[in-house]
Design brief:
The protein is about 80% helix and about 0% strand. It has 13 helices and no strands. Helix 2 crosses helix 4. By secondary structure, it is mainly alpha-helical.
């Protein structure tokens, strides 16, 4: 019994060490994924499997599971859901492997984000192909090709929602961990790194770095008050910077729940429920109307925090 208790304590400590911490972890990851993910992560580390390789494995299971949503057979759908959930567990593993081995990198962050995007792109494509042959709700008319403009708009909204939720989680951790650059990318730094690449750098490296730079610029463009606060802090004294960081973390933690509503896991469980209930035709509208509304609210709340802290800062 003592040995079992000791083993449980070791697993708990390993899980805590692998988490992002700071209260930004998705509750579903904490409750459902972490206990299994940490065991898998240690297995990957022992086998010498890199975090990027785990990301690609996650993508393989995610797309494979998505293909099983094409049929209306619920048992096949359930198998697809199991594969997608396993993909989500592997998505937790890649970050854990990177943090536990100290191999976090810009390429890893780009691959992780790209894998999440491709996993959901596969879901949208399969959902569209399935809906083409199904009737528009409350009518006998099939969706046919009319479903694609709606799904394209939903995908664009989805992309923006994930991008901004990712940014605000990173910003919270940036201040919490003492302006840790690994938590938050800034376009000025990415631009400098891109310009400093040696001439012999590969085309692939230049492409993914430019992609990440443009991605970060989009985040910054949508958050002018946060950028004003960051710029003001750049020239502040160390003590003032610490006080501002503490103030931001104290106020922004009340809005973490909004970012968690927009992450991959919660929206995926909602989609699962809608597939099983046969109401999946309404999923694009949920993304466009409800989740986009949450994104707008999230940005307003966090921008208000940044504005409040900035005004307190300029009063010093």
């Amino acid at each position: 019994m003592h040995r079992k208790t000791q083993k449980q304590a070791e697993v708990a400590r390993a899980i805590q060490a692998a988490r992002k911490s700071g209260g930004v972890d998705d509750p579903l990851e904490v409750i459902l994924y972490d206990p299994l993910a940490i065991r898998l992560s240690h297995g990957f580390i022992r086998l010498g499997i890199s975090a990027n390789a785990v990301t690609l494995l996650s993508l393989f299971f995610g797309i494979g599971g998505s293909l099983l949503f094409y049929t209306s057979n619920r048992w096949i759908n359930l198998l697809g859901m199991a594969l997608v959930l396993f993909s989500a567990i592997l998505d937790c593993c890649d970050g854990q492997v990177a943090r536990l081995t100290g191999t976090s990198s810009q390429l890893g962050r780009v691959l992780d984000g790209a894998a999440d995007f491709l996993n959901y792109l596969a879901i949208y494509l399969v959902l569209g192909l399935r809906l083409m042959g199904e009737p528009i709700p409350f009518t006998d008319t099939p969706w046919s090709f009319y479903i694609w403009p709606l799904l394209l708009l939903a995908m664009l909204c989805h992309s923006g929602q994930a991008r901004m939720a990712d940014y605000y989680k990173g910003l919270h951790l940036y201040f919490l961990k003492g302006e840790d650059r690994t938590s938050l990318a800034r376009s000025r730094d990415l631009q400098a790194e891109l310009e400093a690449l040696p001439r012999e750098a590969s085309a692939f490296e230049r492409i993914y770095r430019r992609f990440y730079l443009n991605y970060t610029r989009q985040q910054e463009k949508a958050t002018p008050k946060a950028q004003r606060l960051l710029k003001a802090m750049d020239g502040a004294e160390a003590q003032v910077r610490r006080e501002i960081s503490q103030a931001y973390v104290s106020e922004s933690k009340d809005h973490i729940y909004l970012t968690n509503l927009l992450v991959y896991n919660i929206r995926t469980f909602v989609l699962f429920a809608m597939l099983l209930l046969g109401t999946h035709a309404f999923y694009p509208l949920l993304v466009i109307l409800l989740l986009e509304g949450i994104k707008i609210l999230m940005i307003r709340c966090y921008e208000a925090v940044a504005d409040s802290v900035y005004k307190r800062f300029t009063a010093f």
